[in-house]
């Protein structure tokens, strides 16, 4: 155009680089502000923590003993509380201090990536694996609780769920592992308090409730293929009762199965755990390789451990660790964060 001069390429490149730098700094500042907002929430007092724990069942630890099918843990570990039996589920109060929770958030925050392996309508969180050498003290602590060598633990994982994010019903064992090698314990720690949303809900725990075999009744199915394909017993409802006594079932995840015999339908109950900063949750998603049940169920799955991360209202941060019988096959090396070691 007459009266105008072309902008030199070097200037365009400089302007482009400047714009990218400003956008990157803005993103980092927003992430830091987000972490600071979560951090500044007043920590729960001792009385509040006791009140939180009192809402859960408390099974005497003297009743816990190794069943030979699952990993045997250190029942004398400080703060340990059993909240369910068969399968055993434990809480560990103050497993991490507030400072340790905040440091994990600082480490992971700048390195989050969308959680993989599932579609967006199934899992919507972000996550980061932290380099092993940056969490040596934490892993040593977990090893004492779990009675395992440090080398049996996967690299530490940190996940973040923003408002309306979730993780639908799932199990923690993995496909494609070596024979009789899979996750035998799950230990996760909430890194912040959540006043609303973000609960961990166990979906298919055994129940002594007698079934009526009525339309609309909540049930789990034992012989739909789910108990041998590594997916677990997902809950559903009876859609129809047929003349031969069998039932059609609609599962909560959208699947369905027809003509299920009554002998293959069971009652179930659920259990919810509310996020509380520093509190650990421990359960056993897979059987030990030495257990006869490990041969019966694909991926060594204990089908009673199906669970979900409920929709977040308050932003939720959680740190996960998994135990393998020997060395983890899901190595996930983790990123070098350059932050303080834990």
UniProtKB/TrEMBL annotation:
Compositionally biased tracts (Basic and acidic residues): 23-39
Which keywords appear in this protein's UniProt record, sorted alphabetically? Answer: Dioxygenase, Iron, Metal-binding, Oxidoreductase
MF annotations from Gene Ontology: iron ion binding; L-ascorbic acid binding; procollagen-proline 4-dioxygenase activity
| Source organism superkingdom | Eukaryota
What cofactors does this protein use? L-ascorbate
Q: Where is this region: Disordered?
A: 22-51
- Which positions fall inside the Fe2OG dioxygenase domain? 152-325
Q: Kindly give the SMART domains that the UniProt entry links to this protein.
A: P4Hc
The terms describing its cellular component in GO are: endoplasmic reticulum
User: What is the protein named?
Assistant: Fe2OG dioxygenase domain-containing protein
Q: Which organism is it from?
A: Emiliania huxleyi (strain CCMP1516)
